């Protein structure tokens, strides 16, 4: 009978439309409720001045295991997640070998259990070997515990396969997570195809590379009735396409990464590969489009696309450096600094996109402080100002574009299944 | 040391850079300083001075990841005229084919006591990457389509010699602008010194967005010829394009080759430049290339002088 009382915090639970100062009681790994009259507690946490939120869920994370343990492991990645305030992450299958068998799903679960940090939910590959040709054994992967399907890292270029995937996942009520990219249009580009790319003489990735595939995905979701989720949306055009699709009743959701609402393509004037990711940082117009999408609800979810790369990999010529940046340990602070502080979203609106919304897309019982729910809780210090120093990251990798940035807010205490797994004090 | 040597070796306090990565970041004053120094070297060579031993003891390396005969030779001669030691690093026989990274290669070279690295690489930003990781002087000899600062400088020096100055001139860069580092370096240098720049070529290789940085664009060479003071005919970068942005070499030459007919419609003292190597008959016909309007060979001589100037200036700030 282990109980925790979290006192005096501002409890914000978007899933129940709660936003008030209250005491939260946890017992035996479950939420008991708010302002429960009870005398004995094993642990009391004073959350005065803090925000008490359902544990944050990052549904787009690369843990690099198996195969690229030099970049990250399940252990180091989940440790980084805790520091970032996340109680659950969904990891992508573009590992080596890819996650396309029951055994590989179970391996991830085993590693997560051994790490004993945050929850790890597995996104398995859509196609066998992630080769983009034949459907993976989705039914058996679901049985093994896979929560969603994606060939992330790569688009599903074969339209027929994408349609089949949407149709087939339908019977398991699972969502296809789409990496929207037309490879022929990306064509070796390393950054957004705007004026900066032109001036720097760098190959550009046009917005059309994303928009064309987004349109295709939406049309197929509409035709099949399947569940579609657009990952890392970065263009105004794609935000708009999702908006109109939702109006038509298409079962589509969408996510944006913190770097896509914080940075623009001009950052690459430094030629620093820590600004190189796919989809790339775009111009201000696209950033505004993404923020508008967050504000009007077109974009349901904020996810980091945490893509760790060992230092030597990023310290190469710009066209050889791999795409991707880490994000778990800066996500929350960027949401606070770039969205909440300027008034684009309020706390409830922002937390909704990091709790119940991703939980619903993945079909997991998380992201809520309902009575009886798993006691995953994130206590946030909303006011602390801190400087990003990658040498302090718990991630094995340090490839962040935010080094030296002063950000506001971060996770103070993280409780997973009723156990305090991270505490900053 | 003779007075001449002292003067040639003098580096004004206003010069603070130990790298030359591009022209975009240089001020008009810095560019003029380099041109003046290069002119001084040019004059000295014109007076018959072969050896100007200002950099005796300086170790340089030509770190060329891309093919080049003339730029490599030009830097090599420049270093040796100044009394410096220079070695050529040949990519094909290097450890790079064994998987060594660019940075490790460069650091190994630095560990041998190299003072100045002259680097050419197909990827923009590689000289910048080296400048961040090494303590040598880094001179950009061309980083992909991004910049080729010594080429820009020698082009501008040639214009200055022939036409007296840069301010107020209309200079047209013709050809594959999209993939041309020579174009970009020229654009930055020329604009800083007050020229009006036009980029001209097929619409698949010339972006209207150049207007956003104050550069005029045109798809028609014939349209702009009458008002142009200088033509810089860029070489078509067959090796840098992925799939052909124009239907054929013949079509390109038909639309953009500088020939006698076109020459008849230009200003009398039109100056024609071309960075080598020229594809005779593609960008320029032989009679224009070898005629009185052409300064192609002077460019080469100026190239040597510019590179000597850059080696001296950057060495002074190591």
Question: Your description of this structure?
Answer:
The complex is a heterodimer of chains A (425) and B (318). Chain A has 2 domains: 3-51 and 375-423, Urease, subunit C, domain 1, CATH 2.30.40; 55-362, Metal-dependent hydrolases (TIM Barrel). Chain A is of the alpha/beta class and 425 residues long. Chain A contains 13 helices and 18 strands. In chain A, helix 1 packs across helix 2 and helix 2 (102-115) packs parallel to helix 3. Helices cover 29% and strands 23% of the residues of chain A. By secondary structure, chain B is an alpha/beta fold. Chain B folds into 2 domains: 3-148 and 301-315, Rossmann fold (3-Layer(aba) Sandwich); 149-299, Rossmann fold (3-Layer(aba) Sandwich), CATH 3.40.50.1370. Chain B contains 12 helices and 9 strands. In chain B, strand 1, helix 3 and strand 2 form a beta-alpha-beta unit. Chain B is globular, with a radius of gyration of 19 Å. The two termini of chain B are 22 Å apart. The chains are: A alpha/beta (425), B alpha/beta (318). At the A-B interface, helix 6 of A face helix 5 of B.
Helix content of chain B: 25-40%
Q: Uncertain runs of chain A with pLDDT below 50, 5 residues or more?
A: none
Please name the CATH architecture of the largest domain in chain B: 3-Layer(aba) Sandwich
* Helix content estimate of chain A: 25-40%
Biggest pleated-sheet summary of chain A: 8 strands, mixed
**Proportion of residues in extended strands of chain B:** 5-15%
Gap between N and C termini of chain B, in Å?
Answer: 22 Å
Q: Tally the beta strands of chain B.
A: 9
Cα shape of chain B: globular
* Quaternary organisation of the protein chains: heterodimer
Give the C-alpha Rg of chain B: 19 Å
Query: So how many helices of chain A?
Result: 13
Low-pLDDT windows of residues of chain B: none
Q: What is the CATH top level name of the largest domain in chain B?
A: Alpha Beta
- Let me know the average pLDDT of chain B: 92
Order of helices and strands of chain B: HHEHEHEHEHEHEEHEHHEHH
């Amino acid at each position: 009978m282990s109980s925790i009382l979290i006192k005096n915090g501002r409890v914000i639970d978007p899933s129940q439309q709660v936003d008030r100062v209250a005491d939260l009681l946890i017992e035996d790994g479950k939420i008991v409720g708010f302002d429960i009259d009870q005398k004995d507690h094993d642990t009391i946490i004073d959350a005065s001045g803090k925000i008490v939120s359902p544990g944050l869920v990052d549904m787009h994370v690369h843990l690099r295991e198996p195969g690229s343990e030099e970049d990250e492991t399940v252990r180091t990645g989940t440790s980084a997640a805790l520091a970032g305030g996340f109680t659950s992450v969904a990891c992508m299958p573009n590992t080596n070998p890819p996650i396309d068998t029951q055994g590989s799903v179970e391996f991830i679960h085993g590693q997560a259990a051994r790490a004993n940090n945050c929850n790890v939910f597995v996104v398995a590959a859509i196609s066998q070997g992630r080769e983009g040709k034949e459907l993976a054994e989705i039914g058996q992967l679901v049985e093994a515990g896979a929560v969603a399907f994606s060939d992330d890292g790569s688009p599903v270029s074969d339209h027929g396969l994408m349609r089949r995937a949407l149709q087939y996942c339908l019977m398991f009520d699972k969502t296809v997570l789409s990496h929207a990219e037309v490879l022929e249009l990306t064509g070796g580009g390393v950054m957004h195809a705007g004026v900066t790319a032109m001036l720097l003489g760098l190959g550009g990735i046009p917005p059309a590379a994303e928009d064309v595939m987004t349109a295709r995905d939406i049309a197929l979701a509409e035709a099949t009735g399947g569940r579609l989720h657009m990952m890392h949306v970065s263009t105004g055009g794609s935000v708009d396409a999702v908006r109109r699709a939702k109006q038509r009743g298409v079962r589509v959701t969408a996510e944006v990464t913190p770097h896509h609402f914080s940075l623009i393509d001009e950052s690459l004037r430094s030629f620093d590969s820590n600004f190189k990711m796919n989809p790339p940082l775009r111009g201000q117009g696209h950033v505004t489009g993404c923020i508008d999408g967050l504000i009007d609800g077109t974009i349901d979810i904020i996810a980091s696309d945490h893509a760790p790369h060992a230092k030597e990999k990023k310290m190469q010529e710009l066209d050889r450096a791999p795409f991707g940046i880490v994000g778990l340990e800066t996500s929350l602070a960027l949401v606070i600094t770039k969205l909440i502080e300027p008034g684009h979203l309020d706390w409830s609106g922002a937390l909704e996109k990091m709790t119940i919304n991703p939980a619903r897309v993945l079909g997991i019982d998380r992201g809520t402080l309902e009575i009886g729910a798993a006691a995953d809780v994130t206590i946030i210090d909303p006011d602390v100002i801190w400087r990003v120093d990658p040498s302090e990251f718990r991630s094995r990798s340090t490839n962040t574009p935010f080094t030296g940035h002063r950000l506001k807010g971060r996770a103070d205490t993280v409780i997973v299944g009723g156990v305090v797994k991270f505490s900053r004090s | 040391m003779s007075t001449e040597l002292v003067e040639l070796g003098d580096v004004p306090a206003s010069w603070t850079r130990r790298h030359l990565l591009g022209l975009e970041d240089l001020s008009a004053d810095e560019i003029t300083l380099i041109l003046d120094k290069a002119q001084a070297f040019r004059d000295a060579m014109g007076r018959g001075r072969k050896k100007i031993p200002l950099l005796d003891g300086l170790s340089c390396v030509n770190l060329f990841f891309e093919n080049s005969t003339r730029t490599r030779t030009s830097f090599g001669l420049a270093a040796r005229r100044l009394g410096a030691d220079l070695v050529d690093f040949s990519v094909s026989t290097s450890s790079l084919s064994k998987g060594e990274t660019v940075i490790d290669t460069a650091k190994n070279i630095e560990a041998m006591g190299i003072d100045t690295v002259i680097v050419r690489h197909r990827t923009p930003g590689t000289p910048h990457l080296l400048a961040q990781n090494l303590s040598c002087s880094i001179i950009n000899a061309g980083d992909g389509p991004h910049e080729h600062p010594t080429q820009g400088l020698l082009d501008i020096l040639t214009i200055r010699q022939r036409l007296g100055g840069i301010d107020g001139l209309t200079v047209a860069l013709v050809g594959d602008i999209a993939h041309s580092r020579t174009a970009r370096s020229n654009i930055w240098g020329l604009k800083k010194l007050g020229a009006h720049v036009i980029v001209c070529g097929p619409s698949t290789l010339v972006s209207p967005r150049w207007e956003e940085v104050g550069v005029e664009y045109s798809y028609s060479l014939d349209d702009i010829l009458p008002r142009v003071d200088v033509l810089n005919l860029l070489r078509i970068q067959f090796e840098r394009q992925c799939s052909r942005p124009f239907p054929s070499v013949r079509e390109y030459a038909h639309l953009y080759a500088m020939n006698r007919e076109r020459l008849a419609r230009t200003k009398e003292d039109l100056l024609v430049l071309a960075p080598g190597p020229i594809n005779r008959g593609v960008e320029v016909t032989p009679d224009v290339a070898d005629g009185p309007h052409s300064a192609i060979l002077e460019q080469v001589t100026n190239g040597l002088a510019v590179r000597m100037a850059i080696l001296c200036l950057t060495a002074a700030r190591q």
